[in-house]
Amino acid sequence: MTDADAPNECLELPQPLGLLRTVGWNLSEAFGLPTIGYVLGTAFGGRDAGLWAVLGAIWLTAALRLIFTGSVPALVLISLAVLTVQTATSIATGNLFIFLIHFPLANLALAIVFARTARGSSPIAAELAGEVIGLRYPKKHEAKLHGFFRGVTWFWAGDFLLLAVILGVLLAFVPVDIYVAIWLVTTIVLIGAGIAVSVLWLRSTLREHGIKFQFAPPADDG
Predict the structure, then answer these.
(1) What pLDDT, in 10s, does the model give residues 65-107?
(2) N or C: which end of the chain has fewer CB within 10 A?
(3) What is the pTM of this model?
(4) 214 sits in which H/E element
């Protein structure tokens, strides 16, 4: 995400605690809240209640984002589209497998989206870097960082494709009642590994191009 006013013409991130809050909140909105809704809804009201809770959680999140910020993050929009189609279909047919299959299908869809944007001038990783982690940098560095964003977008396309394959295989062999828990652990591991690789890659890119890095100054509470 470019920002002509980025101080000292450095690449800038929020303070570490603020960064953790930003990343955690964005991931919670897109994935955590719908998952929690499903688990709680299923525990207290059965399968259909869990599915309705998924829809309620993601639509409420998107509505609140739109009301209070005027826009809905790309990550939430992707989750909203996938969860709405799969959950509504599952409720309409009464087939839980249709809901569960959205886990590998969602990752396959993400792999396709990332791969398609990686070939263009606006790789989605650049947009998500601004939305999810609050990355800012002056426009003068845009050309230098474009190769990184294209490469890391391709990397995430591969990561999501791998996750889709693993979850598809697990769905074929793992009992339905424990599949969601296994999905959560598998997703956390692979996404966490992807984040670590992306951070190291960005660090290497900054060194290669001599771009300085700094954390944003603490917010002035006065």
Answers:
(1) 888 878 777 777 877 887 787 777 777 777 777 778 877 887 8
(2) C
(3) 0.70
(4) strand 213-215
Residue 34: partners with Cβ closer than 8 Å, 6 or more residues away: 54, 57, 58, 79, 83
- Picking from 11, 15, 12, the residue whose alpha carbon sits closest to that of residue 209 is 11
CB 165 within 8 A of CB 200: no
Strand partners, 11: 213
Statement: residue 5 has pLDDT above 70: no
Bridge partners of residue 137, in order along the sequence: 2
User: What residues does 213 pair with on adjacent strands?
Assistant: 11
3 state DSSP class of 213: strand
* Helix and strand numbers, DSSP H then E, in the chain: 9, 2
Domain ranges of the chain: 7-215
Go through 198-210 and write b for each residue having 16 or more CB atoms within 10 A of its CB, e for each that does not.
Answer: beeebeebbeeee
Question: If we measure between CA atoms, which residue out of 53, 31, 57, 33 comes closest to residue 42?
Answer: 53
The gap from C-alpha 156 to its chain's centroid, in whole angstroms, comes to 10
